């Protein structure tokens, strides 16, 4: 399985390298107020892909942080309930879903 993983990575690298070599034409991005930026097509695609991935991670970050806070709160509640019930650290009361 490990070798198959490395073979797939190598094939993906070769395909992306071929894509980069074939698409090295210069492109011009025109902004407002007459600003322009000229670069290789592959560089522009890479920058916009990375920016899209960063926006996706930032959009997901609030949900992840909220879930972490909720998990911490639930663990704290469980410790308090186990302590009040007199259950030790190794022994825990199963919680019934409500």
Give a description of the structure.
With 98 residues, the chain is mainly alpha-helical. It has a domain at 19-84. The protein has helices at 2-22, 41-84, and strands at 26-30, 36-40. It has a two-stranded antiparallel sheet. Strand 1 (26-30) and strand 2 (36-40) form a beta hairpin. The longest helix has 44 residues, at 41-84. The protein is elongated, with a radius of gyration of 26 Å. The model has no long low-confidence stretch (mean pLDDT 87).
Concise structural overview:
Helices cover 66% and strands 10% of the residues.
Sequence stretches where pLDDT stays below 50 over 5 or more residues: none
Arithmetic mean pLDDT: 87
Beta-strand percentage range: 5-15%
Oligomer description: single chain
Q: Largest beta sheet, briefly?
A: 2 strands, antiparallel
Shape: elongated
Major β-sheet strand ordering: 1-2
Helix content: 55-70%
Global Rg: 26 Å
